[in-house]
Each structure stands twice: as structure tokens, then as C-alpha cells.
Automatic annotation (TrEMBL), chains A, B:
Record organism: Terrilactibacillus tamarindi
Protein name: Putative competence-damage inducible protein
Gene transcribed to yield this protein: cinA
Annotated ranges, domain MoaB/Mog: 4-170
Signal peptide (residue range): none
SMART domains noted in UniProt: MoCF_biosynth
Length: 415, 415
């Protein structure tokens, strides 16, 4: 079974938004073992949409449309498909009721074009929309499956996962099972070199490395009709990989480094505080993005000037004068004082040169990260490269990885 | 002239990344007045790529490819196109020299497949790659233009802007000139209502509103062969719009609210500090993302617990006990003390409930923002909605907008 995604919307062709719907659906289909061979984007234009449908029908078993189900004149996806399929549009009473009740509840006056949103293609299964008004639909005609989904991602995603996936899962006999391993602190080519023989002889599961922003992931994909057997295949290959590069393996699937550290802190009943110079609030922001962060995160002092470093954070001016703010010594004081002032168990500090210009005559990318745990104070030097954003992000992530290594007693914290 | 974009790469069809290259190129082409009618994504597969090329040739004047120019076996874009066009691949000596010198400089051994990257289609103009090894190319055959670009965005974007756009701009006779107006604090429908008659009678320039994350933009697009006449058309319509909703207009094109505030602070020779609770470092991070932020930004105290609020930031415990941390009174102290402790001219504070759970028995989305300028201390209440991320971002942006309004003496700071 192979699928094609057709996104309908001129805003995509004008570059106002990226086609993130295609990414989401593709990832979901990969997990179901449905091959996606093409993505197409076409504007709000009947003729070009019709022609895209004909091309897709000639090469794909399943066509999934996103966008163009709304109330305005621009929204012409279902009208065009219904004409191509020679099927009428009929009222979906449930959808109409929910539209009517929305307008009743909000006290707004319903304009006539909203009624249009309740129309579905005759013979299709309606996919309810719990986050908007237009329902989706799924219809099978002559061995082809057509799925229509709304364009706004917050409506499309839950509809696809909750209403479309269960219908599709039934069709598949040999589904794929994927697991993503996430690595930090090792480059893609170094990782590939260490796993070369495994990659060269891969069959089931497949092993697909991918370089992401300052990280590398490996997607393992096993094919098996039984879920527990697929899990066993994934466990086996993961164990082989772990034996070689397990120190760098920080998490799975969609986990982020801050989430992993959040869980470690919770597990060990520890708390954390930051002192941030070059990262300027980024490390804190990554932590506080996590719901429940206040359980483990006390606060931070963003000391962007030497004045704030000495007067708010209490770094001795002598240290700043002798070694400069970008120094191992300053990083140590920053870590120690953030820990004690915020009454956390662990203090983590970041000082360095994010660029674009040198600072204190130190090169762009020079970074020191400090870690204090109430007993010991550590400081580690780094030399990062790339843009300002990249250096900041790389610094913040490296700090999080240090905390992970601290709890796992990995280098440089071996016991 | 109409264009089609073909992205080549199985990672796109697996949903590992989104096709942001298509968004970037589409936006650039829109500015050049080149219509984009289709985006296609196809995997690393010769037959399917060949068929996508044939379809594109049947309907588009210009085909722009991204991806598949690298050294590995997967990279087959230029080989496939050269076969479709019946043209040989030849060595681009300049590209080869730069590849050789890269390996010489880094002391790494060049594998033979790297030499492949220096091949270009015979008769094409090579587009130099200053951020990677594989050059791009542009070739015109039988009134069709083919452009090949590398896949990594950090290589593709500068190549497209610096090498491809100048070649394309020559071709266009009646180019489009765009200007994006950026609004904060007004919803899309309210904005449309105020501009309804202008939108209904638009012709040249066109007026296209778009809701972005907690902002609205209006893209004005004028067609004129003369640049200064197009500019006049844009100025005239912008003036009409400004008369009605100018208070909400904070910037242009790619400007962000923090950038606008950064410029205002520099212009007025003022400095800023933050005290962040629910935003947890986000406001600071947005400011320090700007190169040169240290000119205007002193630092901030991320006080995620009441302990840090009282002991580091100096909010009286009596205030915390009487009114709670999520209160106008606390926001005022936070703003005042961040300003004085960090020795800034303006202190801005954020306290509230980001969710997912209530706090201090206050609803999710309850937010207070404080502003202190050394003389006056203000505090403003808000009720935001949506996810945790959205509430945090909306809070940070609203704070920046308050500072903008403060300098511009707009409501609530009218003199």
C-alpha cells in the first residue's frame, strides 16, 4: 500500500507557512507501515487541484488531502473531489448539530456559509472534528482510499490520530514498529563509524541515522505482524548499539535532553538552579517549558553584565578582573552561587562568547560550563562553532548533558 | 512565469523533517513575482524522480530542485536530471579545488565519493556553495529553467539568495514588491473588520492578512516595473491602514517585537532587566538572541519559587503571603527590584499561571506584567488562553509590546 499526500492551500505556495501537516502524517503512516511516495502541494484552484488528483490516482493507492474544508470561497477541496469522484455532497447531521450548537453557545450569528462545513461526500465515513467545525472524511472507491482532513494542525492532528489511524490500522497486515534513539555529544560520522558493520548488514530492523541540530538520532524500524516480537527485535539491536555508544544515548522518540534531566532530578529528588551569561535565559526557558518544572527548578540569575555577576550573583570582582567573565574560575563561582542563592541542590552555569564578536579578547565559541552540587564545584571548557544561535543552543544542551552524566556517573563524573 | 519546487529526499517522506526549504524558496519567489503552482516531494528513487521531472516539465516553466547533491549513493538528483536532459556531468574545477582544499585544511583523508560532489551538468552555471561542498547549478534548455540546490537549509538559503536570485531577477519584467506589516494586540477578525472596505476594493497593492502565533501580519504587494513607484503605492496604502490601526503596528517584514524593543532602547539610550516567573527565562532568551543585546540588556532574575522571589529578588514575604505571587502587587515589586538590582533604567516583570494546573487557586492564563522606570511602577492584568507554551509566549510578547507602547507613549502610557 502506498500513499500520497496532497496539501491544498495558496498560503503554502506563497511560503507563508511550511507544510508541517505532511511531516506529521508521514511520520504516522511510517509507523503504520504505509509507504509515502509523494507529497504534493497545490493552491486553492479547482483546475490544478483536479489535475493533481488525477496524477495521484494514477500512482497511489491512498490519497490524503489536508486543507480547504472551511467555510469560505477559497475552500474547495471537497467540492473538487466530489466532482472528480462523481459523488454528491450531503449534510452530515452530526457535524451540522455541532456547528449550530457552537453558534448558539457563543451567541454569535451563524452565517450561511458555515452550513457548508457540514457537507460530506456521499458514502464517506465522517471523521468528527473536536477542535473546529469542518468534519473530515474517508471514502474507498475502486480500491483507492481518499481521506480528507482540515488544514489547521490543531484540528488535523487529533482527527488523524483518533479517527483515521484506527480505520487505517485495520487494513495493514505487516505493520512497522519504530523506535528513535537520541544521542548527544557524538557526531553523525563518528556514530556511523562505530556502528558501520551493523548498518551495512541491517535488514530487519533497519537502522537509519539522522543528524539533527547538535544531536544525532537513529531510527530503528522492525517489521513484524506481532507487536511483542517487533519489540524484541528492537530491544536486541538497541542492546548491540548501546554496548558501543551507550554513554551518548540520552533518550528515546520525542524526549528532549531537558525532559530527561527533569526526570532524573525528580527521581533523585534533587533541584536545580542556573546562572546564565551567554545562554541568556535559554537554559531556564528549556526547563520551564516542561509542565511541572517547578518541582525541580528553583530559578536562575541571568547575569548579562559583570555588574549583575558581582552584585546580584556575588562573583568576586577580583575573579572578574583577574580571569575575566569568560573563564573557568568565573563559571565555578557562578555555579556555586546560583546553587546556594536559589537553595538548589545543583547549580549549573554558562559563560562564554556567543558572538558575532570576540569578547575579552576570547574567540567566538569559547564557553565554560560550571556545575556545583554543594560539595564539589566543577568547570569544563568547550570550543563551539557556528552561528550565535547554534553556540547558545549547543551550550545549553551540553549543560543539560553534563547533568545527565552527573546522575549516571558517566565521564567526566566516573566514580 | 510559473515555477514548481521538487524536494528530493526520503527523510521528508518519512516525516523526519518538514520541507522548510519549499517555504523559504516560495517566499523568495513571491517577492520576485514568480508564481509557484506546485510543490512536490519525492524520495531518493530514480524512477519516481524521473516521473516527477516529466510531470513538472509538462506544467511549469521553472523547476527548482532541493536535495540529493551530496556524496553518497542516495544522492542522485543531478545524475537523474542529467539523464533526463541528455547532458553529461562534467567537473566544475572551482568546486573541486574548494573540496580539495577543505580536506587539506582539516587534515582529513578525502574519499573518492567526495569528488562526485564537484560534478555539474554540462552547460549549466555553477552556483558556489560557501557553507558546504556541493555546488548548485542553473541551466536553461528549451525555454525551461532548471535550478539544482543542496538540501541542508544552511547551504541552500545563502546559495539561493546570493547566487540564484540575481540571475532570476534579470528575467522578471513586472516584478512584485512586498511589504509585511506586523501587528500585535489585535485579532485577525478585528483587524479585518477595521480594514474591510480597503480589503474589499484592493487591486494594486493587494492586501493579505494572516494570523500568526499571537500576532497578525498584513502582506501588501504592489506590481510595478519601477521600484520607486511600487514603493509609493505601498506607502500610500500603509498610511491608510496606519490611520486606523497604527497603534498595533509594531514592525515590518521579518522584524520581531524584541528586535523593535531592542532598537527603541538603543535609540533612547535606555537599558532593561527582567524578573520572570511564569515566562521562566523566555523573555530574557528572546532578547539575548539578538546580536549586541548586551548594549541594552543587563540581566534578569528567574524567580520560579517564592523563596527566590523573596531572597534573591527581595519581594517582601508579606506581599507574597497577603496577595500571593500571582498578583499585581508582586508584579510591581518584581519589576521595581529587577530594575534596581540589575541597575537598569527599565524593569519588566512577569508572574502568572502558565498551566496545565491552577496555582494559588488562580485560573490558568491569569497573568500580571509589571513595568518600573525608576519613577513609576505599573502593573497590568491579563487573562490569556491556550496551551502552556502559548500562554508563556503571549505573556513575553505582551511585555515587549508594553515597552514599545511605553516609548511610543501609546495606551496605557498616553501623556
Amino acid at each position: 500500500m502506498n500513499a500520497e499526500l496532497i496539501a491544498v492551500g495558496s498560503e503554502l505556495l506563497l511560503g507563508q507557512i511550511a507544510n508541517t501537516n505532511a511531516q506529521f502524517i508521514s511520520e504516522q503512516l511510517a509507523q503504520l507501515g504505509i509507504n509515502v511516495f509523494y507529497h504534493t502541494v497545490v493552491g486553492d484552484n479547482k483546475e490544478r487541484l483536479s489535475s493533481a488528483i488525477k496524477i495521484a490516482e494514477s500512482r497511489s493507492d491512498m490519497i490524503i488531502f489536508t486543507g480547504g474544508l472551511g467555510p469560505t470561497k477559497d475552500d474547495l477541496t471537497k467540492e473538487t473531489i466530489s466532482r472528480e469522484l462523481g459523488r454528491k455532497l450531503v449534510v452530515d447531521q452530526e457535524a451540522l448539530n455541532s456547528i449550530l450548537s457552537f453558534f448558539e453557545k457563543t451567541g454569535r450569528v451563524m452565517t450561511e456559509n458555515n452550513r457548508k462545513q457540514a457537507l460530506i461526500i456521499e458514502g464517506s465515513t465522517s471523521l468528527p472534528n473536536h477542535h473546529g467545525m469542518a468534519p473530515g472524511m474517508l471514502i474507498e472507491i475502486k480500491n483507492k482510499t481518499y481521506i480528507l482532513l482540515p488544514g489547521p494542525p490543531n484540528e488535523m492532528k487529533p482527527m488523524f490520530v483518533n479517527a483515521a489511524v484506527p480505520l487505517l490500522a485495520k487494513v495493514q497486515t505487516n505493520p512497522l514498529h519504530s523506535r528513535v534513539l537520541r544521542f548527544f555529544g557524538i557526531g553523525e560520522s563518528a556514530l556511523e563509524t562505530k556502528l558501520m558493520d551493523l548498518i551495512d548488514t541491517q535488514s530487519n530492523p533497519t537502522i537509519a541515522p539522522l543528524a539533527k541540530e547538535s544531536e544525532v538520532t537513529i531510527r530503528l524500524t522492525a517489521t513484524h505482524e506481532k507487536k511483542d516480537m517487533a519489540k524484541q527485535l528492537l530491544d536486541d539491536i538497541e542492546e548491540k548499539i548501546s554496548l558501543r555508544v551507550g554513554d551518548y544515548l540520552y533518550g528515546y522518540d520525542e524526549q528532549s535532553l531537558p525532559e530527561v534531566v527533569f526526570c532524573l532530578l525528580k527521581k533523585h529528588q534533587k533541584t536545580m538552579a542556573f546562572a546564565e551569561s551567554l545562554t541568556g535565559g535559554l537554559a531556564s526557558q528549556l526547563m520551564t517549558d516542561i509542565p511541572g518544572a517547578s518541582e525541580v527548578f528553583k530559578g536562575s540569575i541571568v547575569s548579562y553584565t559583570n555588574e549583575v555577576k558581582s552584585e546580584v550573583l556575588g562573583v568576586p570582582t577580583q575573579i572578574l578582573e583577574t580571569y575575566g567573565a569568560v573563564s573557568a574560575e568565573c563559571a565555578k563561582y557562578m555555579a556555586k552561587n546560583s546553587q546556594s542563592k536559589c537553595k538548589a541542590t545543583i547549580g549549573l552555569s554558562f559563560t562564554g562568547v556567543a558572538g558575532p564578536d570576540k569578547s575579552e579578547n576570547k574567540e567566538v565559541g569559547t564557553v565554560f560550563i560550571g556545575l556545583a552540587d554543594g560539595q564539589n564545584v566543577y568547570s569544563f571548557p568547550y570550543q563551539f562553532s557556528g552561528t550565535r544561535s547554534r553556540i547558545r543552543l549547543q551550550s545549553a544542551k551540553t549543560g543539560y548533558d553534563l547533568v545527565r552524566r552527573y546522575f549516571r556517573q558517566l565521564s567526566p563524573f566516573e566514580k
